[in-house]
């Protein structure tokens, strides 16, 4: 899983898009949000410590980013 985009509104609420790929990694796709059939964006404020994808359940403390 990869966070491919993050958006923030004027109130500071964030949403993000997830993408995933299998082997080979040349076929990447945006992950559906199982909590919203029409919208692939995940609302960061509503994850409540967990991120549910169609195939996996992640804890928010499992998120990682590249060091600056």
How would you describe this protein?
The protein has 68 residues and is an all-beta fold. The protein has one domain. Helix content is 0%, strand content 38%. It has no helices and 6 strands. The chain has strands spanning 2-8, 14-21, 28-30, 42-43, 50-52, 57-59. The strands form 2 sheets. Strands 1, 2, 3 and 4 form a 4-stranded antiparallel β-sheet that branches. Strand 5 (50-52) and strand 6 (57-59) form a beta hairpin. It is globular, with a radius of gyration of 13 Å.
Q: Which keywords apply here?
A:
single chain; mainly beta; globular; 68 residues; two-stranded antiparallel sheet; 38% strand; 4-stranded antiparallel sheet
C-alpha termini separation: 20 Å
The beta-strand count equals: 6
Q: Which shape, going by the Cα principal axes? A: globular
Number of domains: 1
- Computed structural class: mainly beta
The total of helices stands at 0
Q: Tell me about the biggest sheet? A: 4 strands, antiparallel
